[in-house]
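Limitations
The structure tokens in this dataset are predictions for the assembled complex, not deposited experimental models. Users should treat interface geometry with appropriate caution, especially where small molecules or nucleic acid strands are included. An illustrative entry is reproduced here so readers can see what is and is not provided.
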Amino acid sequence: MIEVEGLVKRYGRVSAVDGVTFTVEPGELLALLGPNGAGKSTTIRAITGLLRPTAGTVRVAGHDVLAASVAAKASLGYVPDRPYLYGKLTPRELLRFIARLHGVQDAAGRISHWLELFSLTDFGNELIEVLSHGMRQKLAFTAALLHEPQVLVVDEPMVGLDPRAARQVRQLLREYAAKGRTVLLTTHSLEVAEEVAHRVIVLDRGRILAQGDLASLRERAGVADAGLEEVFIRLLEQQEA
Amino acid sequence: MLLLGLRGRAALNSALRSPARLVFAAAFLGLTGWGIFELASAGTRLVDDFPAIDTIADAVLQRSLEGLFLILMAGVAFTSITGSITTLYGSNDLPFLLAQPVAAWRVFGLKLTETYITTAFLPAFLTVPVLLGIGAARDASLAYLPIALAAVLALYAIPVAAGSLFALVLMRIAPAGRVKEVATALSVLLAAGLVLGLRLLRPEQLVALSAEEFEQLLGGFAALQLGWLPSTWAASGVWAALEGRIGPMTMLLMVAALLLLALTAWLAATAYQAGWVRSLDTARLRLDPTPRGAAWWERLLSGRTGALIAKDTRLLLRDPGQWSQLLVLAALAGVYLVGVGSIDVPLRQFQDVLGALNLVFIGFMLAGVGMRLAFPLVSLEGEGYWILQTAPVTSSQVVRAKFLHALPPLLLLGGGLGLAIALLVDMSPALAFVAPVAGICSAIATTALGVGLGAAHPRFSASNPNEIPLSAGGLAYMALAFGHAVLQMLLLVIPSQRSLLGRAGSYWSTPEGMLVLGVMLVTTVVISLAALAYGSSRLARFEQGTP
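Predicted assembly:
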């Protein structure tokens, strides 16, 4: 479960996020949408402990991200949009390192399983620096899922993935949430959000513009039978008007 | 010029984003430059006023300048081998620039200029105050500086071009995917060999010469002519500039530099387009699906701290930027031991004082080594630091792991040199006992200060490990590490004094000896723990992606 309450992040006079409150329940897959500069990345960074909020609290699996950071991070898996990994390690070495940080039992078996799932077995002993962007993205997924976290946070999951891997990731996200885990993703691909998310939050200029499932968002935007893309654009236009 | 202007604008924008760093760098460079200027002008006046050599003063100064140019030129050549691989062939903007409607040789001309700036900036910066100092001492005309500067800038272009050409050859012959490793190893070994060679000449023998022998030596030095070396052309050009004229050697230097740069840019463009730089490509993938387990040494390192140390050790052994530092360390130790071994002191008491002084010097040396080995360790996590920030590890565990990772080489250097000094100088048993202890204390404090202050002032976006210590944190580290060495010196004064008086027999079993030893150990532990705690607490507050 992710609980974000009154989250504020200011850089000087500029508010990147201004009083955002939401919860993602176990078994739920929530998509965070918004135009560039809406505050999605800042919100994600606050949830993953990469930055400290100016005000408000963030709890991951019941643990405060600041006060009980180690417990919160032990329950968290994170896939960034740009997967900077240690280029001079091999995928197996990186995953072994991650497994040791998380105290994973039977690490070797799990590593082989995930590498196989993402068709990376042949590349397991090559240096990460020689892998393509898509392969690194798949490796970042593997690293995030290795310890089977209660909460999975994914920033732009489809960047660099080939169509087969993209479909695999969509399926994996759905299945992961179906197991009772919490999944939060940000994406610019409204098709992906529409296909996999149970609920959507639209952020704009650091505030929540709208939230709910597709049906309630359609109602809010005043467009019946429209896709998420149309709904999203209509909501932004209403806000600007 | 357009490309160069764009690059200049990008550099200016980047500098203006952090004005505090800019002011710090300007103040640091300004103070250093002023110091060099004073030294150069005083040195020139000293030689000019030296009574016995007034007829050859010019030649002595010119040969000295040639020597300085030669050393700096060699430095530029070594750094440009690795630097040119990064800027000429590994730049991220190269595909973008080559896709523009601009001739390839122009793009590579820009890249060569970048190589020139990154590798020759520091030597050129060190040279300018020297030129100013000589000019001030000789009351040079206004035309002196621009002409001398042109000669020096042309001089450093030659090793840049030569280093880049050598790198180009390496691209062809080095094993695929290993060109950076080969270039780094060659550069470090050549530089270490040069320093070791110079040290083996034993310059300290000069102080043992009589006045006649010294005059004879200076005469020979002044008559030394190495006209085929560009450093000689540059020194000759500077001397012509002192008379306010552009000498033939300056012209020769400038023509040679321009020709070499043009040839290198053209060759680099041709080689790149012909796919000649195959060593930049990745080695052929082996695609081995065998699930390889942890190495035996990795299994010995338990827990999260152990996992962090194992990861850092692998990265150290695979990253040429990191393992080359160990080669430098070994070369430094070799040079130092050769130097100490060549000193002949007949009296036991003076041997003890000399040994104690050397222990202090080891402290200073360790401070320098820690600047390269310990201070950048946290920052070397680079853009991958998010992995640790989102993992269930505390900043204290990260800092502790970095400390334990950096400690063994510094401990080996500090303790080993301390022991070697005791044996080489043949210190008395009392001081021979404390020598390795002092070396170990210096190593521990230096490592903790480096890791702690490096963690407190991380620079994860630094493009080059050498940039990392250029900060207020780096300066604080140097001040504190030197402070610790001075403290050790003050503590060693007491047993050295007892030794001079011949009363150091069983010094360490006396209350005073135990107190000195206790203070040495306690201050080391306190300084180390405080530095690590400070680093951990500052690192915990670091925010990723803050604009």
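Some entries come with short summary sentences. For this one: Strands of chain A lie at 2-11, 14-24, 29-33, 55-60, 63-64, 76-79, 151-155, 182-186, 199-204, 207-212.
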